[in-house]
Amino acid sequence: MSAVAPNPRVRLPQRPGAPANVVIEGARVLDPAAGIDRLCDLVVRDGVIGGDPSGLPRLDGAGLTVIPGIVDVHVHLRTPGKEHAEDIASGTASAAAGGVVTVLAMPNTQPPTDSPSILGSLLERAGREAVVPTGFIPAITVGQAGESLTEHGDLADAGAAALSDDGVPVASALVMRRALQYQKATGLLFTLHEEDMGLSGAGVMHEGVVSARIGLAGIPGVSEAVQVARDCALAGYEDARIHICHVSARETVDEIRSAKQRGVRVTAEVTPHHLLLTEDAVGDDPDPAKFKMNPPLRSDADRQALVDALVDGTIDIIATDHAPHPADEKDNPFAEAPFGVIGLETAFAACHTALVRGGRMPLDELVLRMSTRPAEIFGLPVPTLADGAVANLAVIDLDAVDRVGERPYASKSVNAAFVGMELAGRVRMTLAGGQDVYRRAA
Amino acid sequence: MSGRGSLLGIADLASDDVGRILDTAGRFGEVMDRDIKKVPTLRGRTVVNLFLEPSTRTSTSFELAAKRLSADVLSIKGTGTSMDKGETLKDTILTLEAYDPDVFVIRHPQVGACRLADRYTQASVVNAGDGTGEHPSQALLDLYTLQREVGPIAGLHVAIVGDVLHSRVARSGIRAFTLMGARVTVVAPPTLVPRHLAEALGAEVSADIRDIADADVVYVLRMQLERMGAGGFVPSLDEYARMYQVNHARLRPGQRVMHAGPVNRGVEISGALVDDPETLIEAQATNGVVVRMAVLYDVATGAAGGSGEGDLVREAA
């Protein structure tokens, strides 16, 4: 069982705001974890679900679906250090526009988020700026350098949501083992970008047919899988819990499946872009850098393996790896452009279009994988539509189709891999932390 | 070929395009036998040679080609990456665009750089080598050389030997040879062949040097020591030479040998073979100029429509 009791020490600050008051009339209210699926009016009074509807503003919910809001455990808010790409306010506004009610931010900032004091300043700033409740994932090692552990105990006390050296995986198995051992004292989950940097070498895209064709250096799928195999072995040995970030390769799926069968306490996420896109995008587009991210888009066989693994539960959840970069930095030859794509605003629509409309997964299962399960795995408050819960929900027009990129992004950056695609599932309203944080007219 | 008339890679060409360029090169070849080796074909046009990675033969042959076509030539050499220069490739292109050039000839250390440049200029772009991507003018001059010295390409068997992984010459060459109907076998250490090469480019792959025996042409690739970095692609150059060097002992009579240069004597090819006049190496260098004249003419005049056929090789006034 990889879900844990909510960790009361995790801090998810949000800027102050008036509590939401609204009656969503005649919508489909869907919360599979709470066993709710009915057409009804949903009342939100003083930021809490339920209560007396009289005198509240009304929203015509005909044709709309209310779901527990999305919990995205893998975003980059670029603060501190790269606020020109994103900051807490813009990144969380982007989340709200995507129906996301909680985000966890990764530590590969400048400087890295690797001390209780930096964590404290980010939490304080989020308490002033964050549109949705925002938690932080500090680094496992000082400076993400892979040598000495950060103060895991103090970070847990200060409100860390988990620990990760995202983007710069812990190279030393010994250091990783020490970190896993320390989990018994802190309870903090490790969320791991898995990559053998030696195997990846100078690679900039998936090592496959397209890289062979166009001559770009490849990152093999096994670069991810060997590190996952190592960390699953270590986690099994230490009886520690680990979470694997953005699984991209079918070889990795095999490793996770095998580890789970052995009883290793491992969970895993996949991004919408890895579920929808392949290496072919890099080969076919005149502006291929918009498809550059790490891990890279892989072959269609990999993509199908990821979808299958998500469907069968080998991969537990969806997370975006929302990674903003300024357009000027992306506008370089492929190898020089930075890794990463934004994703908060399109995650639900992309997955709804590909998985639900694509016939691979019912809507209630998608809600579990984007909202309930991520919260459970990270020990966060689970968004629910049950009476008495703080309103953390998204109101969605499942049939409305948007062409990605036609509207400006709430994010400061525009490096979206889905640009030009038509995706079904328009977020009409987001309530997060009991506040009314996003509205869009039909 | 892209709409405006750029040459970004052999991947963009059809066999008709290749045939047309080689025919044009042949006509320019006749000019080279004259006393005055200059034609007015591109008079009044501006060719910018932008070489952001070291090059001798490609840059000089493009420069000479442009001059023999009477174009105004601007040659710019710089160091590799945009980071070093503090200016992005995009900005460099936009700056030079102010001079209203007709053709950019670009060499750059990164794959896709010419395609990026092509998005930001009204001029034609000729890829003179983009990292480990493509080197289409080299492949065209190789075809031209084979056609003249050996005969029709269709039906030939070409063995490409050596560091395919780092080789834009190989990537363009495999495409060009197969496009024109040749069969290609890559012979190389397994560490120096991209995974999925066979599927990606339609070449057969072997790790055994004896598999060159069946080839009509043996194309030797330079060991790109500067691109190898760490990682030990081969245990040693001595061992590489013992296992994969192309030399007289491994060739049978009648096999023709090519190399795009510069050669590492005693590594991928024996010194004696380099000096053997039976190889096509010198012809490749010689043919570089006329083929690059044909490439410049083709992109600058949108020659797919055949403009100014009569003026093509008229002597300069």
Chart the SSEs and their pairings.
The complex is a heterodimer of chains A (442) and B (317).
Chain A: E1 22-31, E2 36-45, E3 48-49, E4 58-60, E5 65-68, E6 70-75, H1 88-97, E7 100-105, H2 116-129, E8 134-136, H3 152-158, H4 173-186, E9 190-192, H5 197-200, E10 205-206, H6 209-214, E11 218-219, H7 221-238, E12 242-244, H8 250-262, E13 266-270, H9 272-276, H10 280-284, H11 300-312, E14 317-318, H12 327-330, H13 347-356, H14 363-377, E15 393-403, E16 422-432, E17 435-439
Parallel strand pairs in A: 1-4, 1-5, 6-7, 7-8, 9-12, 10-11, 12-13, 13-14
Antiparallel strand pairs in A: 1-2, 5-15, 15-16, 16-17
Helix pairs in contact in A: 4-7, 7-8, 8-11
Chain B: H1 15-31, E1 46-51, H2 57-68, E2 72-77, H3 82-85, H4 89-96, E3 103-108, H5 113-118, E4 124-130, H6 136-149, E5 157-161, H7 168-179, E6 183-187, H8 197-201, E7 204-206, E8 217-220, H9 225-228, H10 237-244, E9 256-259, H11 271-274, H12 281-300
Parallel strand pairs in B: 1-2, 1-3, 3-4, 5-6, 5-8, 6-7, 8-9
Describe the structure.
The complex is a heterodimer of chains A (442) and B (317). By secondary structure, chain A is of the alpha/beta class. Chain A has a single domain, classed as TIM Barrel (Alpha-Beta Barrel), CATH 3.20.20. Chain A has helices at 88-97, 116-129, 152-158, 173-186, 197-200, 209-214, 221-238, 250-262, 272-276, 280-284, 300-312, 327-330, 347-356, 363-377; strands at residues 22-31, 36-45, 48-49, 58-60, 65-68, 70-75, 100-105, 134-136, 190-192, 205-206, 218-219, 242-244, 266-270, 317-318, 393-403, 422-432, 435-439. In chain A, strands 1, 2, 4, 5, 15, 16 and 17 form a seven-stranded mixed beta sheet that branches. A four-stranded parallel beta sheet of chain A has the order 9-12-13-14. In chain A, strand 16 (422-432) and strand 17 (435-439) form a beta hairpin. In chain A, helix 4 packs across helix 7, helix 7 (221-238) packs parallel to helix 8 (250-262) and helix 8 runs parallel beside helix 11 (300-312). With 317 residues, chain B is α/β, with parallel strands linked by helices. Chain B has two domains: 10-135 and 287-311, Aspartate/ornithine carbamoyltransferase (Rossmann fold); 151-279, Aspartate/ornithine carbamoyltransferase (Rossmann fold), CATH 3.40.50. Chain B has helices at 15-31, 57-68, 82-85, 89-96, 113-118, 136-149, 168-179, 197-201, 225-228, 237-244, 271-274, 281-300, and strands at 46-51, 72-77, 103-108, 124-130, 157-161, 183-187, 204-206, 217-220, 256-259. In chain B, the strands form two sheets. Chain B has a five-stranded parallel beta sheet with strand order 7-6-5-8-9, covered by helices on one side. In chain B, strand 6 (183-187), helix 8 and strand 7 (204-206) form a beta-alpha-beta unit. In chain B, helix 1 (15-31) crosses helix 12 and helix 2 crosses helix 12. The relative contact order of chain B is 0.18. The interface between A and B is medium-sized, with 25 and 31 residues.
